[in-house]
Predict the structure.
Amino acid sequence: MKEREVYLDNPTLKEALDRFFEELEDAGALKLVESEIVDVREALGRVTAEPVFARISSPHYNAAAMDGIAVSAKDTFGASEKNPVRLKEGVSFWPVDTGDPLPPGCDAVIMIEEVHPLGNGEVEIVSPCSPWDNVRGIGEDMAATELVVPENHRLRPQDLSAILAAGHTAVRVRKKPKVAIIPTGTELVNPGTPLKPGDIIESNSAMLAGLVEEWGGKAVVLEKVKDDFELIKQKVQTAASSADVVLINAGSSAGTEDYTSSCIKALGKLSVHGVAIKPGKPVALGYIAGKPVIGIPGYPVSAYLAMELFVKPILYRMQGLPVPKREKVRARLSRRVVSSIGTLEFLRVKVGKMGGEFIASPLSRGAGVIMSVVRADGLVRIPESKEGIEAGEEVEVELLKSKEEIENTVLMIGSHDVTIDILANELKRHYPEITLSSAHVGSMGGIIALKRGETHMAGIHLLDPETGEYNVPYIKKYLGDRRILLVNLAYRQQGLMVKKGNPKGIRGIEDLVREDVTFVNRQKGAGTRILLDLKLKELSIDPERIKGYGKEEYTHLAVAAAVAGGGADVGMGIMAAAKAFDLDFIPVGQERYDIAIPEEFFHMDSIQKILKILRSEEFKKKIEALGGYNTSMTGELIGGD
Amino acid sequence: MKEREVYLDNPTLKEALDRFFEELEDAGALKLVESEIVDVREALGRVTAEPVFARISSPHYNAAAMDGIAVSAKDTFGASEKNPVRLKEGVSFWPVDTGDPLPPGCDAVIMIEEVHPLGNGEVEIVSPCSPWDNVRGIGEDMAATELVVPENHRLRPQDLSAILAAGHTAVRVRKKPKVAIIPTGTELVNPGTPLKPGDIIESNSAMLAGLVEEWGGKAVVLEKVKDDFELIKQKVQTAASSADVVLINAGSSAGTEDYTSSCIKALGKLSVHGVAIKPGKPVALGYIAGKPVIGIPGYPVSAYLAMELFVKPILYRMQGLPVPKREKVRARLSRRVVSSIGTLEFLRVKVGKMGGEFIASPLSRGAGVIMSVVRADGLVRIPESKEGIEAGEEVEVELLKSKEEIENTVLMIGSHDVTIDILANELKRHYPEITLSSAHVGSMGGIIALKRGETHMAGIHLLDPETGEYNVPYIKKYLGDRRILLVNLAYRQQGLMVKKGNPKGIRGIEDLVREDVTFVNRQKGAGTRILLDLKLKELSIDPERIKGYGKEEYTHLAVAAAVAGGGADVGMGIMAAAKAFDLDFIPVGQERYDIAIPEEFFHMDSIQKILKILRSEEFKKKIEALGGYNTSMTGELIGGD
């Protein structure tokens, strides 16, 4: 086997940041970017490289602040209802509109509403005015030499207008830090290429470039390089000579074909390789020719965090700006999370406001699950000193969305169904301000979440073996003390999913025990699992006899994926999942999928809007089109609570 | 005199919005913009026009999640320290790197750290693994057909990466709403044109365009049009046929040459003309050919508010997005503000955190003062039903900056000095995270602000006539119960400012009483005013004899501007102000300008950083260069507290 890079040490995030930034500073690799002069009208969002002082005053002349007549105030002294004063156009008054300069000798403006025309170019006024009444004097807005905006200021729309009014047409701003992004990896293929096993779509650099742009930089994504030390080295060297920062994506862990860290070492200084964080551990930090060079890990979540933790502060620093901090909220963690001592973990969480408090629910912790970042509302740091966080413990959440968006999010925890995605989308379409956020933990997981007050609603399909009734007996048993309303989502077909053409010739539940058949199961508490167990009981089949009964997946799609991928021959789930993976579907029975909503949430405006969507013909048509659904009761209240 | 447009009614903001949006809706003028297909890599910040479902699963094959060896888990069963299991390369194990596809027959990966090489292509392991250990199964990140992002979703960097990983190369997004901006007004000149009285720099459209861009639209600024009904009409008609929204800037009030509302009336429907808000009253709201057309007032603050209140909701609506709400804080108003019943006033305020609470200080209320928007940290609404707000009353502030920025702002209320602008800029340059925000209310105003706990520090230059001592006697008298530290900003020259060449031949204070001389004064409580009054007393001059003694300005620059503009022949102030306006300067005396800082704030990190700047040679050099300053004590503590 080939030689491998090893991590020399494993500093904490703080140690790594301190060491890296100190070395960058010493190497002169954290300098402000150069400046350039741009037209004020094209300077939105740019950062000033020097203070802008007013060249001229605004107004630059004494201006009428009203439509009316310009006068010399002393000509109006003594005017009253009894003794009106008469003025003559061109002699003692001049009509002016707002913004007009005061004619010579005038020092006040009388509003048009207070002027009584007499004809023949004469008017009468019945009250005196004081000097400078209704006049915008020179410099009222800004006086010449006054500071309009300081250095290190990101220009907003109102600043542009003020700078123009201050007599400037151009402004000196910092250039955008240029960031070269080098995707590496023999396994990478460009988006759109037909895929074979082992191919990985080069999708990271779009995220890296997007983050760079959001932080004020200019991203240059270079053509991908295969895992070849000399090729990568050459590309990095060229990039370091033309860009302000270089990012090498992937190849930063200690794997066989990971050349990033040795490349930084060969061309410059490697300050840190490997940090005690999760995800993001394999990051490589160094500099080449006075330019920061960062080896960004290949897993997308690790890449996201490495960007956030190491690249963001560099870019802001180079622009002379403070790093903006995220809004934070205190929240209660919905589930227990175990973590490793010595590692700082960044947990992605969904956040919802339940009554008065925020609840954070952990999302998938895999470094490869970019959807956990897409779905996340926030990040929770589990410090190096902790072994994890207990359910119900209070945590600090760094928000990835605004608090307002989170307050407008309806949480739905429970069983997975494809139609929930459609519901989420229809809701966003009709009511852009409301978000439906769903977590898939099975029907019993939903019931428990309701019990703990961690969700606004739960999606459940739980068959009671005693009564043959769906959902109601479970609500009564586990939530008997609460008033819960049940609204039907749909009736749906459950069945066995097998490979296209059914190569193993599976006909039903009874074939699951065959020697040549491998099954993939759903987790305990899932409605589908309960249905399967009931069917097995009816057929007196011992689950122990089913190969793969112990392999559990959390969603219908994951089961379908396992069958499609060859991990199993058969799994149980809904027809939509089978269709999604082009599998054959053997119906086993119809079940009722309901949404359980506590009475205290039922009248929330957002939940009423969800019901409106559920009851719309448009929504029903869309889910009927998936196949395997019956919408005759969709959106209806189920009696029997 | 010419005919004038008059407002037909004067609805409240709510009435105006309701009427306008209802009419737009009825006219089909609030439709979603059309969509277009763009490359995913160019879709940052764009809004999805349809949901994005995964085309493929990710991973699309079963992938090694670790560097190590791929095995069939059953081959490892029973392995232990005592009974290690031996595996052979190419027979029972295959080396794999992270991301590699599992070879056929394999269902697990053993981490490289747990593999003991024996040579000859053989390895040993001492513990068993389970199926799917260290394997990223098909669809672990996302399963085909799963919702990646819904419709009406603004794409973030992580979304781009997820959409690419889901097998898409392009995405359907909404076009940016196209907004035509038509500057009108015969008095407008393009930026950079030499100015004559009455000329107004066309600076508004840069702000309007910037706001449109920030709200997701595409701004098209058209060439300015002079005040000619037919010309404007023609331009508006063309714009309405090609843009999604048309903004006509200025000409929206009821003045002589205001053609905006009549133009909307002639071409389409004028829904509202004039709203009971301040600033922003003259706004005109209507539609032409199914496109919203808004007459934006000419005063920049009115324009800013009209954009915010009427254009922003239209642009968000057209993109299918909710209008983001501003962060709000509760604050105590520092000064009493009187407002008109029946008008909703938008007060621009500076906000500072003083100890535990936020303090809002009103800025200039003029509709023409764009600097009040540049300087503002937030807006306070004074409702139609109120006559004003008392000092100390609690108000709700809609923040224009982040709470974090406000918490990092040091407030300095008191006398104006040009060097404070330089201090503010130097601070931002060295410490981008800290902002110095100053309000100019005179020295006594600063003392009162300290007394009320409304500022972190006050700039003062108050001469005690009894003792001839600066500042200390005033601190003792008004703030005797507080521990206050005084730090010197500079000694500075006070004097009389007269027009270049001193046309009236003024030699000193004694000439202010001359018949042919008009004076401009500073407000009561200003250090300069106190110095003047003392000098007058010394010379036994009755202030009543000075023409213009009653005309008060709030800053040195405003006084200089009044002299430069011909409003007065002479005013008192500092040399820097005279220089700024190219005036002659007749020295009257030197005074000490100090910064008073309560002990409880003195050790704040941000204030210590300000002291560091004050004490730097760089800062001292910059203010010496202004002329009229002596920095021998700058940054030093003044004894005698």
Chain B has five domains: 13-32+177-318, 35-58+140-174, 63-136, 328-403, 428-639. The longest helix of chain B spans residues 300-319. Chain B has a mean pLDDT of 92.
